[in-house]
Every structure is written in structure tokens, then in C-alpha cells.
Amino acid sequence: MGASLMIKAVVPLALWLLFASALLSLANAIPKTHNHDFVNTSALHGIRQMRTGWADGPEFVTQCPIRPGGSYTYRFTIQGQEGTLWWHAHSSWLRATVYGALIIKPRQGDSYPFTKPKRETPILLGEWWDANPIDVVRQATRTGGAPNSSDAYTINGQPGDLYNCSSKGTVVVPIGSGETNLLRVINAALNQPLFFAIANHKFTVVGADASYVKPFTTTVIMLGPGQTTDVLINGDQPPARYYMAARAYQTANATFDNTTTTAILEYKSAPCASKNCPTTKPIMPQLPAFNDTNTVTAFSKSFRSPRRVEVPTDIDENLFFTIGLGLNQCPKNFRSRRCQGPNGTRFTSSMNNHSFVLPNNISILQAYQQGIPGVFTTDFPANPPVKFDYTGNVSRSLWQPIPGTKGYKLKYGSKVQIVLQDTSIVTPENHPIHLHGYDFYIVAEGFGNFNPQTDTKKFNLVDPPMRNTVAVPSNGWAVIRFVADNPGAWIMHCHLDVHITWGLAMVFLVDNGVGELQTIEPPPADLPLC
């Protein structure tokens, strides 16, 4: 399951991490993931990778997969980041079990911008199938239907007390009366946004996606897959045992895993510790209903940067990307058992009506850096090819996207704004959109169709939060801004893995600037070959 990697950031600090052996040892417990002999890549989720895109990790985007028995050293420098990130496999659905925390501490001599916690605990929320997850996605790919839902969620690799036969391994997190502790919460689930709460305890949110935020208090948090949230908890309740619990936030009109995972927050002075009276149930938190979008919206709107920030203005690239699902008509040479989507179709997904297809014999970054033709095109549209009522009753003629490996070119230093617009095609849904190689400011979110005449007045250009993954509201929109100061090939995709499997992604191709410090480094000698 997950494993924690602790990193103390001394800026600039070059980190030389040999992940492959650990990843492959975990992957050996899973049957091979492809018909060929490629196994895995590892994404260092949220690391900026300034000029070191070769260490970013997504297969066939920045590298070819690591072969069984092989290794690859990820070389990168942490710059200006502090807080909780994570690492995970970025090949097929291997990240269902191959993931861990990646924690960047303050540099020596510096301190947190909040009360120093007595202890810190990574809380990794996961998703578990009573099956090989690779078989699950393979079956969905064969049939064209939706994959089977997971059978359980986990906290630090354990499902908890509410599932059959799992209570012996329930995770226990200690706390002392009067202590202030830091929980680093990571949603490593494959396909499900999750609520998280602790009975009778409040959270003070102090960070997200390795950026500090203006502290605010809440009783529940929601994380989309890929997102992290740092919270302080106080040991201010009567000494006892309290459940921490997570369960689904679901917006799509689709089946989902409606179970609840638990761990136990245990006061060290509790009169009934877990070993002494295991029949005494801890107190259970009140979690929101699975479809409580109002709670999610209020939580999301609470995020602010700690102080005034330099938000990009005078935008050079004003982009508008629709995101959502789609349905492909059944190919004439397919039997009906291969078209088990709605009404004999096959599920797909897209951005701006283009469904992303990965190369299979070279990475996009290699082809881009070396000028190799025929691997990708640079005609990803800046706006939807056809304007329509995005959150209304969409014409069926727009339900089948165009497949391709399309990128969008950005000049070094260009100031970019992207409107990310959910659509109601097949079903509206909350989409966690992650951009590799960059942090960005979320300047606004809303519901319905984005209206540039009225919604731009709602932009927060003073202290918007900085994130690397934005949860685009169901039947709504979000607007992000960043400066294209990191040359390379950077994928932007939905972090619901079923959606990236279906093609909800695109790639930004950022040109080199002037001089060595604005140019991507040469590929390392041990870069895996296809």
C-alpha cells in the first residue's frame, strides 16, 4: 500500500531518488499490467520539476515505462515548495496500490507559519478492489462500459472497522490532551472525491497542495483525487476514542462505492484504550450526504492565500476548455459485448471535444525536444470547436469526440488563463483537473455556463489560493491562471483515473526561453527506452 517519504527542503536542494526498485517490488504483487513487458512510471505529484520534465513521470508523456528489473533515477530540485505532496504510479491503474506521501519540511532554521505541531501524521485515503485493479480497467476497456466500483476505501492502507474481517488492522492515530497535531491528508483514491471528518473535532486548514493558506476552521474537508490538505487538530475533547472517517462525494449519475472507511483518533489518556476494551466502539463523526454540493462549495470558497499574491494579469493566452464524458458509436467490426455503454455505445471523455490518445513507442517530451515528427500535433483548440449550452441539454452530435494526440504550444513566459467548463454530456460531474509542472491560482469558481461579461467581476485577483489540482464544480466552471515559466511537455488531465483512461487530457508544449536557466535540461543517460 502507501509509504511515506520525508524530505527536508534546503532550497535549492537537489534530490536524487531511486524509486524504481521500490515501485517494482510493490508492482510484483500485481500481475503484469500490459501485454508487452512495460511495468511502470512514477509521478512526483505536484513537484514543479523546473527544467527537469524528464523526472515528471507520466508514461509516454515525459518518459517510456520502466521495464521489469530496470531502474530509473528521478533527478530534480525542489524550489519554493513546502508542505504535503505525494508520489504515485502513472501507468494504467497501478497507482491503486503504488503511492505514498511526499512531505517537504521547512528549511533548517525556518518554522511553520502556524503553531508548531506536537506530532505530524500523514493520512492517505485510498481505494481498494477485491480484484486486480488492472483486470478491472482491462475489462472496462474491452467492454466499453464503466469499470466496476471499488469494494472499500482505506486510511493508510486499512479499510477500518466498518468492513467485514478488517477491524484488527484499523489504523490508530495517537493524540494527547492539550496537544496540537498536524494531519497531512492526501486523497490517493483512484476515482472518487472523498469527505473526511473526525468525530467531535474541528480542523484548522493551513495548507493545500504544498502551499500555505489563510487558516480557516471547518468540521469536514473534501478532497478530489490528487489533492492534499494540511489540517491542525487540537486535543481538546474528553479523553476517549474517536473515529476519523471518509466516504464518497458523488456528483455523477452513476454507481459508486458508498462505503465508509475509518481510523481511530485515540487519546493517550483514554480510560478505555483499544487494547483494553476492543468491544467499545469509538464515537462516529457526522459526514455530509454523498451529494452535499453545498458543503463542498462552502469549503472550496474558504481557500485564500495567506497574503496578497502576484496574480498574472495582461493575459497572453485566454483559453476555454470544456471537460466531460462522451459516447462513441460501436464500431462496425465490434460485437455487442464490446459495446456495453449506454444504448450499445462505448464510454469516452474529452477536452474541447478531443479525446487524448497516448503514444506507444516514444514519449511526447522526447519527440518535442528532439523534433521527431508524427508523434503529436500542435492543433489542440484554444476554445470549443462548437459553442453550445454546456450545462444544458446537449445535442447528441457533440457526444462523440475526436481522438488524437494533440498539444497546445505556449511561449516561455506567457501569462495563461484557462476557463475549465464542465459539461452535462452523459452526466455532469465534479472533475479534479491536475496540471503537471505548474502550480496555478484559482481565481474563481461557479455554476452553470461561464459568462465572461458577468463572471469576470467575481475574480479574486488579490489572494486566490495556489493549487496544482482544481476540483471543477459539477455543472459548473473554474478559472485558473499561471505563467508558463517551465519549458517541457506537461499533461493536464482529470485525476479520476477512469477519465484519463477514456481520454480526458491534453498536453501543453512550453517552448524554451533564453539561456540555460530558461531551457529544459538534456535527457538523462538512464531515461527508459520504449
UniProtKB/TrEMBL annotation:
<keyword id="KW-0052">Apoplast</keyword>
<keyword id="KW-0479">Metal-binding</keyword>
<dbReference type="InterPro" id="IPR002355">
    <property type="entry name" value="Cu_oxidase_Cu_BS"/>
</dbReference>
<feature type="domain" description="Plastocyanin-like">
    <location>
        <begin position="379"/>
        <end position="512"/>
    </location>
</feature>
<keyword id="KW-0439">Lignin degradation</keyword>
<comment type="function">
    <text>Lignin degradation and detoxification of lignin-derived products.</text>
</comment>
<keyword id="KW-0677">Repeat</keyword>
<dbReference type="InterPro" id="IPR034289">
    <property type="entry name" value="CuRO_3_LCC"/>
</dbReference>
<feature type="domain" description="Plastocyanin-like">
    <location>
        <begin position="43"/>
        <end position="108"/>
    </location>
</feature>
<comment type="similarity">
    <text>Belongs to the multicopper oxidase family.</text>
</comment>
<keyword id="KW-0325">Glycoprotein</keyword>
<dbReference type="InterPro" id="IPR001117">
    <property type="entry name" value="Cu-oxidase_2nd"/>
</dbReference>
<dbReference type="InterPro" id="IPR034285">
    <property type="entry name" value="CuRO_2_LCC"/>
</dbReference>
<dbReference type="InterPro" id="IPR045087">
    <property type="entry name" value="Cu-oxidase_fam"/>
</dbReference>
<dbReference type="InterPro" id="IPR011707">
    <property type="entry name" value="Cu-oxidase-like_N"/>
</dbReference>
<keyword id="KW-0732">Signal</keyword>
<dbReference type="InterPro" id="IPR017761">
    <property type="entry name" value="Laccase"/>
</dbReference>
<keyword id="KW-0560">Oxidoreductase</keyword>
<dbReference type="InterPro" id="IPR008972">
    <property type="entry name" value="Cupredoxin"/>
</dbReference>
<keyword id="KW-0964">Secreted</keyword>
<dbReference type="InterPro" id="IPR011706">
    <property type="entry name" value="Cu-oxidase_C"/>
</dbReference>
<dbReference type="GO" id="GO:0005507">
    <property type="term" value="F:copper ion binding"/>
</dbReference>
<dbReference type="Pfam" id="PF07731">
    <property type="entry name" value="Cu-oxidase_2"/>
</dbReference>
<dbReference type="GO" id="GO:0052716">
    <property type="term" value="F:hydroquinone:oxygen oxidoreductase activity"/>
</dbReference>
<protein>
    <recommendedName>
        <fullName>Laccase</fullName>
        <ecNumber>1.10.3.2</ecNumber>
    </recommendedName>
</protein>
<dbReference type="GO" id="GO:0046274">
    <property type="term" value="P:lignin catabolic process"/>
</dbReference>
<dbReference type="Pfam" id="PF07732">
    <property type="entry name" value="Cu-oxidase_3"/>
</dbReference>
<keyword id="KW-0186">Copper</keyword>
<dbReference type="Pfam" id="PF00394">
    <property type="entry name" value="Cu-oxidase"/>
</dbReference>
<feature type="domain" description="Plastocyanin-like">
    <location>
        <begin position="120"/>
        <end position="269"/>
    </location>
</feature>
<dbReference type="InterPro" id="IPR033138">
    <property type="entry name" value="Cu_oxidase_CS"/>
</dbReference>
<dbReference type="GO" id="GO:0048046">
    <property type="term" value="C:apoplast"/>
</dbReference>
<feature type="signal peptide">
    <location>
        <begin position="1"/>
        <end position="29"/>
    </location>
</feature>
